[in-house]
């Protein structure tokens, strides 16, 4: 590519940024053509890049995809109406005011665009479209003399005429669009605490303080755990906070909070339902044991949450569609229900930290739990763990209740009982397969 070609490319880039929004040819993505021919002379580099890509795909922290397209579409939506607002007739003063309002709206949209790209920085590292968008935003902020700080664009509300009759009934809306029922996932957090993730991994965590269980576009759930008693090795969930995020056509933001010895059958504002539309409520709460149990149904999300107190700890069980649980960005990278607890906070469920008790206490714990949970699965192991670490017989009810919730929420009965040893073998098998694949790639490189 010669200097003349580079000059043409620069001119094309300038024209791209100057295209009016909403006209054919505009795209918030600019893919530089200079990157196409850089590696054609060194084919072995492509193999190395593919190998590195496979390594990255095997790492959970890199698994989140670059969602720059979402930032682009939000920016386009925020600026759709600005073009029609500019250039209106009227007196000179009115026209000047209109141009100022348009520029202010455009700057707000650019600041929102910039904020969105910053959130994507981790997942989009090395993505050409992402870096092109970042540079373009910077140029436009300077061109329009936009202050770095200021209001951001609000999401465009959906026109009422476009709302389906079933828009706030997730299951019915999903079936009408997809022709099938949604795929549901299950998560539970209970006991010391133990976590069964949406991916059916099972972990025991040493976490203390407040930790997010779910953090997506629709729902935020947080659990707070504290030592069960002074000097004890065990912890217990003492508070659960659930925030249903604003979904304008269905429900306003709603808060639910439960604490030890206070599991209310109502939201924080005292209501038992919210989001009424056509005689139906998007959110409802009811209880079968006042003060110790609450069941929250979010029909607009197709989601069921059960909060209960078992012994001296709280527990949470969730049933939610896959599309809801996966509606999050790379910045929402700490969710115990999605990835489990951090590796540094994990305990061996099969080897609980022993308090100053005799071996007979361990034998008694096994005998007590096998009477309640005949199948020696993860719930049985959690029961034994909690009894040994807490010394409280009532702590066994947490595992029993969690198993009952799993039976109610998981349609595939064969998936209810998990085995810790089998899960570990499957993880090793996946790691071995990836290692063999990488070794094969490297062998191809050395023989080339």
TrEMBL record:
Gene3D superfamilies documented for this protein: Mog1/PsbP, alpha/beta/alpha sandwich (3.40.1000.10)
Question: Which GO BP terms sit in this record?
Answer: BMP signaling pathway; notochord development; somite development
Q: Where is the composition biased (Acidic residues)?
A: 1-11
Q: Which InterPro entries match?
A: RGM, RGM_C, RGM_N
Instruction: Tell me where it resides.
Output: Cell membrane
Report if keyword DNA repair is assigned: no
The Repulsive guidance molecule C-terminal domain, residue ranges: 183-409
Gene Ontology, cellular component aspect: plasma membrane; side of membrane
What are this entry's molecular-function GO terms? coreceptor activity
* Any matching Pfam family: RGM_N
**Keywords recorded for this protein, A-Z:** Autocatalytic cleavage, Cell membrane, Glycoprotein, GPI-anchor, Lipoprotein, Membrane, Signal
Region of interest (Disordered), residue spans: 1-29
Q: Does the keyword Iron apply?
A: no
Q: Where is the Repulsive guidance molecule N-terminal domain?
A: 66-147
Membrane-topology descriptor: Lipid-anchor; GPI-anchor
Q: What does the sequence similarity comment in the record state about its family?
A: Belongs to the repulsive guidance molecule (RGM) family.
Instruction: Name it.
Output: Hemojuvelin BMP co-receptor
Q: Which organism is it from?
A: Mastacembelus armatus
The taxonomic lineage of its organism, from the top, reads:
Eukaryota, Metazoa, Chordata, Craniata, Vertebrata
